[in-house]
Design goal:
The structure is a homodimer of 301-residue chains. With 301 residues, chain A is of the alpha/beta class. The first copy, chain A, has helices spanning 13-19, 27-38, 62-68, 84-92, 106-113, 117-133, 156-169, 185-195, 215-226, 253-262, 271-279, 282-285, 292-296, and strands at residues 8-11, 44-49, 76-80, 97-103, 138-143, 147-148, 152-153, 173-178, 204-208, 230-233. In chain A, α9 (215-226) links the parallel β9 (204-208) and β10. In chain A, α8 packs across α9. At the A-B interface, α8, α9, α10 and α13 of A face α8, α9, α10 and α13 of B.
């Protein structure tokens, strides 16, 4: 276990987390949230999305948010971008990195972004090209990489097909998502056995949801057994699950980092500050945070 | 992984779970809860405790509960017993098995049952002897086996000392408890590396709390890597944590069994029925159940 690498966290709370929240937050609350996260030791924060305000009202203010945040040196502030128009706005907002979004499941992609997997990839081909010409690194989300809410279990071969197209297009890193939280460590091993022979470890991020309580076990499996260093997480467990109202969503950054820490890793994160940053959103969202650490309160060493 | 044994669950919700709940349940609600659990495929249910009603008011009705339940063939109904007086009551109630309770941490034992570890063991020596003479199997709880709320980290050598005394006394099985939920898979490996050379696998049960969200990862580590088959859990995640009000307590039976199932195990449990059995207590307890599955709702295959 001593050879497990230092874990790297991509904080997705301000985008992936908030976008599933029903109550729209004022931009000032988002800016304060991101600024607090910047002080907590995170190296990358997905701070917004340049998508249609009709489709995702919660992200309509991303330009204002990017303008308002205090950027800290050494932190990458990224944004989700679905098309060339979004990329224009992202470039104006001076994002440090962009992310595009597709899925391993045809049915999910169709219902989520109204395109087949192949169409979605063709749609963002010019986005990726232009982003790279502008010197921006590109992440691609591959959601429903283990289970799909419509199709059930998704085999590694479907993930590998999408991953192949994305790598060929020049995407820098992949975020492999267990969108509905049904993956187990056995599923994680099966997928990593297929994925890692074609993808260098540092270009893989795993994006777990804690819907069924298996996110921490999955992340530790990938890190301890396969030496995968990169994980997405969401401060306060922000996010919920649109397919199971009331259920947990993205794994909480503080829960995941606590577990890595308890396994001996140096995370560089201030967990009490992350927990507190998320807790400040409770009034806006009208509910307590979903993280385990949020319920425990300040951590005693 | 194919060699991992069939997991065995000891349901501790009606005793360990309820005993930490502030609102006292009527015996009829406990009886209905246990009867529902009996129908859900569990093989052992800790149904009560014959302790001082002043010390643990929630357990004052254990004789009535044992009298009221519909015992199902093949299920062991056990009870916690602190002393000879408790054993008399347990024998009258025709329990199938008893459990005694101590801790690996001196400070915890002192504050929890007002005895040193050595005193607690001497105190139940005649209980264990008499129970065995009566043909009852005996379980011993060793709590704070990883961390103590007062002393911090507990080394495996402290656990091994208590375990040695218990085995020498003739205890049949041990339930090794992470009372405050701070153990990680690394801690689990460290303890099992010390424990398993002296204790046959089938006599070890691990008792995890999900306070920090690591219970499922810990259980899967013990099961997959060490082939430990036995785990304690609590339907609905009943229990809470007296050291962190509002935090999760015992790992939920349905969450743990779901994770084992997702890893390919045949658990024999009906998770929807376990979830539903716990949900029936929500009105009495005045709060929703804490399990992940409880929040997701009925499981779609």
């Amino acid at each position: 276990m001593s050879a497990a690498p230092r874990p790297r966290f991509v904080e997705v709370g301000p985008r992936d987390g908030l976008q599933n929240e029903k109550r729209t937050l004022p931009p000032a609350a988002k800016i304060a949230f991101i600024d607090a996260l910047s002080q907590a030791g995170l190296e990358e924060i997905e701070a917004g999305a340049f998508v249609s305000p009709q489709a995702v009202p919660q992200m309509a203010d991303s330009s204002e948010v990017f303008e308002g945040i205090k950027r800290k040196e050494g932190i990458r502030y990224s944004a989700l971008v679905p098309n060339e128009k979004g990329l224009e706005r992202a470039l104006q907002a001076k994002v440090d990195k962009i992310a595009v979004f597709t899925a391993a499941s045809e049915s999910f992609n169709q219902r989520n972004i109204n395109a087949s997997v192949a169409q979605s990839i063709e749609r963002f081909r010019p986005v990726v090209l232009k982003a790279r010409q502008s010197g921006l690194p590109v992440r691609a989300y591959v959601s429903t990489a283990f289970h799909c809410p419509y199709e059930g279990r998704i085999g590694p071969e479907k993930v590998m097909a999408v991953v192949g197209d994305l790598l060929e297009m020049g995407v820098d890193e992949l975020s492999i998502g267990d969108t509905i939280g049904r993956a187990s460590p056995v599923d994680v091993r099966r997928l990593l056995d297929a994925l890692l022979p074609v993808l260098p470890l540092e270009r893989v991020f795993l994006h777990f949801h804690d819907t069924y309580g298996m996110a921490v076990a999955n992340a530790l499996t990938a890190w301890q057994e396969y030496k995968v260093p990169g994980f997405d997480s969401s401060a306060g467990g922000l996010g919920g699950c649109p397919y199971a109202p009331g259920a947990s969503g993205n794994v909480a950054t503080e829960d995941l980092a606590f577990a890595f820490s308890a396994c001996g890793a140096e995370t560089g994160l201030d967990l009490d500050n992350i927990r507190a940053a998320a807790a400040c959103l409770e009034t806006h969202l009208g509910r307590p945070m979903a993280s385990h650490l949020g319920r425990v309160g300040p951590i005693r060493s």
